[in-house]
Amino acid sequence: MRILITGGAGFIGSHITKLLLNEGHEVMVFDNSAGNLERLENVIASVAKQSSSELEIAASPASWRTPRNDNSGMTLLHGDLKDSEALEKALGGVDAVIHMASLIEVSESVKYPLKFAENNIMGSINLLEAMKEKGVKRIIFSSSATVYGEPKTLPLTEGMPLDSANPYAASKIAVEQFLSAYHKNHGFDVTILRYFNPYGPGEEHEPETHAIPNFIKNGLDKKPVPLYWKGEQTRDFIYIEDLAKAHTVVLDQSGFNIFNVGTEQGVRIIDVINKLSDILGYTLEVEDLGDRPGDVRSNYASSQKLKESTGWSAQTDLNEGLRKTVEWFKSRENF
Ligand SMILES: NC(=O)c1ccc[n+]([C@@H]2O[C@H](COP(=O)([O-])OP(=O)(O)OC[C@H]3O[C@@H](n4cnc5c(N)ncnc54)[C@H](O)[C@@H]3O)[C@@H](O)[C@H]2O)c1
């Protein structure tokens, strides 16, 4: 398939791009970060070298070029969701879109809700309009477990009520609703994937607010790791390669589908710190920051619906995933 992946040069998108190429798809990466595109170019070039495959980088990350129609594997497109013309060019001949481009930092969203609404909601509608214009009607959307707010019961299943606790979550709910409208009004095939807590090699957000990369970075620097709620909250940590695979198994889904993507296990944050101490070979020092209002206490997924539809289930055990992630942070080489 020929697939356009918006935000495909980010942390999760890079892994999905790599997997799509390995599975023989043609991938057009559309991203507004020149730095991330350059990083992705290096990742894919090293994969191509290692496997002597035919991958080719078709465009320089800092500039727009019309996609080459030569089965080269990957094309990098430096563009923004608000640029309809760029989107329409990128959509030529595309079979499906994986839509990941988004601002993601929750506390930033509380400070700058308009910026989040413009980028995440208006940007997504702009993409949907460009897709309609070009007759591309298959989309997979990166949503998040944050759409559920504070869970009343666990595990979380897809039919549970949504409750946005911040503008980031509100932007995901809004886009889900627009996707529903485009499915009903224009016959789009829509798959919404609600990710739980992704982690793995290559995760370097700025600012980084996610627990695992912060624990590992501080641990390697022998600095105390920040800890809230004494580490008693539970999260469902999904290894990045398992999450990437969830995208390729839904490529042929039709209709309107929503799937949780998680391991179905809630792990206490303090247990993650203890596992990391074992892997690093010394006890991580903790900085007790007390309670943090607004945090969800516990969550974990039921991913039975995705399993029943596609056979997918998470394969990577937390110890193995953490070990691979620590190794990556030590070398910071391509994943
Ligand atoms: N990382 C997580 O824990 C997590 C959890 C749940 C859902 N998600 C969702 O997964 C997706 C990817 O997350 P990530 O962690 O890889 O984030 P990321 O920040 O690493 O990647 C997002 C990419 O989107 C690009 N982008 C943002 N706005 C854009 C725009 N207007 N036009 C073009 N490109 C744009 C960014 O430059 C970046 O390269 C996001 O939609 C996010 O909301 C992430």
UniProtKB/TrEMBL annotation:
Gene3D superfamilies in the cross-refs: NAD(P)-binding Rossmann-like Domain
The NAD-dependent epimerase/dehydratase domain, residue ranges: 3-262
Pfam families per UniProt: Epimerase (PF01370)
Highest taxon of source: Bacteria
SUPFAM superfamilies: NAD(P)-binding Rossmann-fold domains (SSF51735)
Family: Belongs to the NAD(P)-dependent epimerase/dehydratase family.
Name this protein carries in UniProt: NAD-dependent epimerase/dehydratase
